[in-house]
């Protein structure tokens, strides 16, 4: 049985362009700009029953792999079995940063306006959904449950990375 890293290496070998190996490519493949591994409450099967149904092979939550391309990004789930499954894909230009937002701590005074849309993915693309902001000055929030964009947040200065917590 393959380890997480062996599964990821096998997966990336299928995705990375053949041009890097020195052999002529049979078909044009996408260039990978960045890669990030995520351990978020999205893959916590005790909080996300839909995810548990997809990956009910064991108690260990799958690793999430985020891949940024020159024209978009993908989020993949890589369970212990090593069979990757695409969870999300967006193709609207380069993506500088992306993060899966953890579910907030809920109290009696606060309510979660996005509870029906969670888990959420924050994506900083070159052009935001409004199309009027300067490059990389917008973060779009996507629902990984429905695939739709649920909110767009505009900033005055460029965004270089995204950080988030339960607050």
UniProtKB/TrEMBL annotation:
Pfam families: BCAS3_WD40. Residues 30-167 form the BCAS3 WD40 domain. One of its GO terms (cellular component) is cytoplasm. InterPro entries: BCAS3-like, BCAS3_WD40. GO terms for biological process: autophagy; response to starvation. It comes from the Eukaryota. This is Breast carcinoma-amplified sequence 3. It comes from Cathartes aura (Turkey vulture).
